[in-house]
Write a structure and sequence with these properties.
Layout lengths: L1 H17 L8 E7 L10 H13 L4 E6 L1 H4 L5 H7 L4 E5 L22 H10 L2 H10 L3 E8 L6 E3 L13 E3 L2 H9 L3 E3 L6 H7 L4 E2 L4 H7 L7 E3 L8 E7 H6 L2 H36 L4 E3 L3 H21 L1 H34 L5
Parallel strand pairs: 1-2, 1-3, 6-7, 6-8, 9-11
Antiparallel strand pairs: 3-10, 4-10, 5-8, 5-9
This protein binds calcium ion (CA).
Length: 359
Amino acid sequence: MKKILKVGLIASAAAMLLASPLSAKKIRWKLAETWPSTLTPLASPPAEVARLVKEMSDGQFIIKVEGKEKHKAPLGILDMVKGGQYQMGHSGSYYWKGKDINTVWFTTVPFGMTPSEQYAWFYYGNGKKYMKEVYDKFGVYSYPGGNTGNQMGGWFRKEIKSVDDLKGLKMRIPGLAGEVMAKLGVNVVNIPAGELYTSLDRGTIDALEWVGPGMDIKMGFHKVAKYYYTGWHEPASEMQFLVNKKAFDKLPKKYQVMLETAMKAASMDMYIENFAESVDAWAKMKKDYPDIQVKTFPKPVMLALKKAADEVYAGYSAKNPKFKEIYQDYTAYMKKARAWSMMMQYNYLKLSKELGITK
Ligand code: CA
């Protein structure tokens, strides 16, 4: 065994000498991300992909990552990758819902699947097939780019006791969830990330949602709003890698494999990183700000949100056949997967509470 390994090492060393870096032509790509390059864990997957492909290719495949501070077009990523200014992008699929509503399926939807259910649908159900169909017309390939897990429902300055408390409430909440909230009379506003803390502190807005403890703690929302609601609207937000089709198709096969492998590994890593950061952040928040009250919307509010969400889905299904098709496929898969999630995850968590392992 040892001998075989030795021979193998000598052989690969010889191969490396033959494929001298000097003789090969380096491939240099650029990647634009929606986030500032310091905003981890969202900014982690692109940096990790660049590191991995560089290592795997012995420095022959270089990807330069540019954050929003450089290109200044956080919501122009799809256009820049489509146009070829950047070979790659890292963003969130639901940001393109104005171009095609069906892009929302590949991030997350209100009352939708959990991360494990959604990954199963994506890789072993029809998710991947639909993502390809939706992105084909843009001349790009789209891949999962890291998951935040179930997001928190947001920070509220006042407690929500009834549906009436939502009427006229000013809240930052994007995507389909914003449309759902608007149906219940919420005044949905869009505010740049950099102004969110001040807006909540000064009462320009009454509530906002961001991600979860790990990312929220960096924004400081817990210092200015004490009601922290559990989530319903983004149960499995998946980020997205975009790759210009022509650029990808021109890559030597081995670099295509390297890139796809690196994107998958880096995405999984972000899911773990964000989970770990939330574990620590929540422990710290609870200790430093014991006034924070974790709340779940009362049942009548949840039922009203669910009804409004169903109306949003029905509205898009009526005017967009592809939306209807994906919605039906997604919902059928979720129903099947949820039965297993309940047996596997829910019962175990319930048991740990019953036995006093957790509170
Ligand atoms: Ca969010």
